[in-house]
Every structure is written in structure tokens, then in C-alpha cells.
User: Which sequence fits this backbone?
């Protein structure tokens, strides 16, 4: 079996056929899904999904793109929700300098507050990083994120950045872009990450892997990421499945 460590199955893209998508994932050997809610609108629907399916877990937090909307009450709300039995981590949190929908200093403050909360609650964190490698590493270090660790979700950085994250007890997760022909750097990085720190994910409905690139992504497609990873590492699909499943269970205490 495989674990999709990062999904957004509560997204509106699945409103028409959510139950079928989830059933298809299960039928394709996806034994566990970690679903992410990241703002006022998606946290409740994320939790509802985790309550409806025994094999779906929830991670809750505040996305950097929505940082400008986060008030202290939201942080208290997230703290309260962290006691929910299906909540296994905090996020996705981090920095997004690509869309830049919230000022950088606001993003940084919201990121720091969530790391402090995760340390207080002793929960792993899920990191969203878009074009912000240097500042992400600096903040993780300054806020002592190594005390809780977590995952660099859909990692797209260099080996140097991966190494710094690994040194702070982070796992490195790869998604659909690993399967793209021109993804030279992610392929090189995936081949260097220690086996006990590798994870696979979809980030569905986004970042669809080959051969469905351009279409809507879904959790069942995480197998294409695992197959690609197996080829890069010279390991069988079964070995990748076992390794990444063990890793996800350890990180999220599943
Ligand atoms: Ni995401």
C-alpha cells in the first residue's frame, strides 16, 4: 500500500465525485491519505472528511497565501482543533514568494507563530515553500523547528536546501513534478535523500503526474510518483511503497 501524504480532497474540484475519487484511491492500494486544510474555509471541510473516512487523517494550519487574513483567534482555533483525534500535524505553513498574495513580513510572522504552536503541541509541521528556500531555512532554524520536525511538501529545491532540512529532522516529499521529463533537479535530489526520509504525495487536485499531466489530480495517482521514485533509486514499486509508508507512519504517528 501507499500513503498519499498531502491531498486536498475537500477542494471544490471534487464536489461532483468526491466519494468515487476516494473509493478509487482505496481500490488502487492507497491505504491512508493525509488531507490538508489551510484556511478558514478549508479547515472545517478537511476535518469533516477525516471524520467520514477512517483512513483519512487531517493536518490543519494556515497557508502563506492567506497569511494576511490570519488573526490570533485563528491560531487559538487551530490549537483547539489539534486535540481532535484525526489531526496528525500542523500546516501547510511556510512562505510563497511566487504568488505573493500576502506581504513577506506578514507571511513570516504567521509562519513563525505556527512553528511555535507546533512546538507547544509537539506536532510535526507541513511546509509549503515556493521560491523562498533561503528564508524558509532561516525561519525553521531560528524557531527551532527541529524539535518537532515535519515534511518539506512537494519539494522543488536544491540538494543543498534538502540537506539543511534533513539536518533539522525534516522528511522530503515528492509529488507529480518528479515524473516530468524535464524535472532534472528533483530527480537528482530524490536519488540522494536517505531512504528513511522519503515521502510521496499528490497535492491533488493540483500537480498531476505524467501520464495525466494537465488533468485533475487525485490520490490514486500517487502510484505514478512511487513508480518514478523506484526507477530513480533502482528499487521496486513494492520496496518504495514499504519504505515511504513506514516513513509516513513514523512522521505522523499513524
Ligand atoms: Ni497543498
Assistant:
Amino acid at each position: 500500500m501507499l500513503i498519499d501524504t498531502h491531498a486536498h480532497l475537500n477542494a471544490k474540484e471534487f464536489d461532483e465525485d468526491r466519494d468515487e475519487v476516494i473509493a478509487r484511491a482505496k481500490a488502487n492500494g492507497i491505504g491512508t491519505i493525509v488531507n490538508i486544510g489551510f484556511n478558514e474555509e478549508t479547515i472545517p471541510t478537511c476535518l469533516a472528511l477525516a471524520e467520514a473516512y477512517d483512513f483519512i487523517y487531517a493536518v490543519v494550519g494556515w497557508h502563506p497565501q492567506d497569511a494576511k487574513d490570519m488573526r490570533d483567534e485563528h491560531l487559538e482555533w487551530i490549537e483547539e482543533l489539534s486535540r481532535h483525534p484525526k489531526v496528525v500535524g500542523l500546516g501547510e505553513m511556510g512562505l510563497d514568494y511566487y504568488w505573493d498574495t500576502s506581504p513577506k513580513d506578514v507571511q513570516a510572522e504567521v509562519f513563525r507563530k505556527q512553528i511555535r504552536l507546533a512546538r507547544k503541541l509537539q506536532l510535526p509541521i507541513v511546509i509549503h515553500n515556493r521560491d523562498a528556500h533561503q528564508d524558509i531555512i532561516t525561519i525553521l532554524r531560528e524557531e527551532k523547528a527541529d524539535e518537532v520536525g515535519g515534511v518539506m511538501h512537494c519539494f522543488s529545491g536544491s540538494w543543498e536546501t534538502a540537506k539543511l532540512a534533513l539536518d533539522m529532522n525534516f522528511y522530503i516529499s515528492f509529488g507529480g513534478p518528479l515524473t516530468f521529463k524535464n524535472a532534472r533537479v528533483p530527480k537528482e535530489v530524490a536519488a540522494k535523500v536517505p531512504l528513511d526520509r522519503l515521502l510521496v504525495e499528490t497535492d491533488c487536485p493540483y500537480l498531476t503526474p505524467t501520464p495525466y499531466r494537465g488533468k485533475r489530480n487525485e490520490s490514486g495517482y500517487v502510484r505514478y510518483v512511487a513508480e518514478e521514485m523506484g526507477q530513480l533509486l533502482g528499487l521496486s514499486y513494492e520496496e518504495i511503497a514499504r519504505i515511504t509508508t513506514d516513513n509516513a507512519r513514523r512522521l505522523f504517528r499513524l
About this structure: The beta strands are 2-7, 30-37, 56-60, 87-96, 125-130, 150-152, 170-174, 198-200. The chain has one domain: 2-252. Residues 6, 8, 36, 92, 203 surround nickel (II) ion (CB under 6 Å).
